[in-house]
Amino acid sequence: MAPHEWRRYLRMLDTLRPVTTPELIELQLHPAGLLPRSLAWVIDVAVRLGITMALSMPLSMLGKFGGGISLLMYFLLEWFYPVFFEVLGDGATPGKRSLGLKVLNDDGTPVGWGPSLTRNLLRAADFLPFAYGIGIVSMLLHREFRRLGDIVAGTVVVYRDALGGLPAIANAPPIAPEEPLDRTTQRALLAFAERANSLTPARQEELADLLPHLDEQVRGPHGAERLMGLANYLIGRQA
């Protein structure tokens, strides 16, 4: 099976996004969906509103000068509040931090000024025609729940604790492969085994039947069981 076919197979398992950083560190990113991102947005709106109200009263005592400062403050809070926190606050505004979310570049590296500015300035496009209509539709259609600003900026919103390890592989009698397996194939087998417990038996067998490169070893009514055996062999378990 070609590498791009294996990547399609991995995508069928779940919404985890495997990436390799420039330092050659492999990470598993878990993109955040519409609901947690919406809740984080509501919290950030409340924070900005609180700041605005707290500063508006003293500024109102300064007459027109205070009014001008208020407009400038509103502009900065609306457009640069998220940029400031995303770049200097480890990828998270107060709202995102409270929901356990953060913004990263889609290669897993910390977001910088350019991508953060791009994704936040494009909120104007995501807002169209009203109430973030385009942004919501984009997130619902995109596998990684990315709105237009994320797609253009090359960013993704993920769960902060999703960079750890995956569940352990269940014990099964190891099965040696009939021929050496390349790294991509091994990763796909291990990904299947790590997530097998979260899949129904029917789904496990369906995925097992999608492996033409290993068809002699995994096809049939017990294909998923043989996949687990191959995975146990790869991690060095003994019979």
The count of domains is 2
> Would you tell me the structural class of the helices and strands?
mainly alpha
Write down the secondary-structure element order: HEEHHHEHHHHEHHHH
Major sheet attributes:
2 strands, antiparallel
SS strand fraction: 5-15%
- The total of helices stands at 12
State Rg.
Answer: 23 Å
Oligomer: single chain
Distance between the termini: 28 Å
Q: What's the mean pLDDT score?
A: 81
> Biggest sheet, strands in spatial order?
1-2
User: What is the overall silhouette?
Assistant: elongated
Helix content: 55-70%
Task: Give the uncertain stretches in residue-range form.
Answer: 9-14, 162-166
The number of distinct β-strands equals 4
What would you note in describing this structure?
The chain is mostly helical and 239 residues long. It has two domains: 3-15 and 166-234, no CATH class; 29-163, no CATH class. It has twelve helices and four strands; from the N terminus they run αββαααβααααβαααα. The strands form two sheets. It has a two-stranded antiparallel ribbon. Strands 3-4 form a two-stranded antiparallel ribbon. Strand 1 and strand 2 (26-29) form a beta hairpin. Helix 2 packs antiparallel against helix 3 (63-88). The radius of gyration is 23 Å and the shape is elongated. Residues 9-14 and 162-166 have low confidence and may be disordered.
